[in-house]
Automatic annotation (TrEMBL):
GO MF annotations, alphabetized: tRNA dihydrouridine synthase activity
Name by which UniProt lists this protein: DUS-like FMN-binding domain-containing protein
UniProt-listed InterPro entries: Aldolase_TIM, DUS-like_FMN-bd
SUPFAM superfamilies for the chain: FMN-linked oxidoreductases
Domain DUS-like FMN-binding per the UniProt entry, residue ranges: 29-79
């Protein structure tokens, strides 16, 4: 599919602090809770958002429940690394 995330050229990862010193407009996305599932994150990438926040994943629930893991941490094989912070 034209414009598909998997077919787009990979952009190098950036240091978030450097974004604010670039002199360019920084595109930031901070979705509401439960609105940053995989489909949304793919759209954010397609439109080249520079920095995107995602909801916090509660470590206790993530560790105890396969349902929580499947719901909160879905990925695809688009070749990009994702950073996730899990709060205890």
């Amino acid at each position: 599919m034209v414009g598909d995330v998997a077919e787009t050229e990979r952009r190098p990862l950036k240091d978030p602090v450097d974004l604010f010193h670039s002199g360019q407009v920084v595109k930031i996305c901070a979705p509401m809770v439960r609105y940053s599932k995989l489909a949304f994150r793919s759209l954010v990438r397609r439109y080249e958002c520079d920095l995107c926040y995602t909801p916090m994943i509660v470590a206790a629930d993530f560790v105890r429940s396969a349902k929580a893991r499947d719901s909160e941490f879905t990925t695809n094989n688009d070749g990009q690394w994702q950073k996730v912070m899990v709060h205890p």
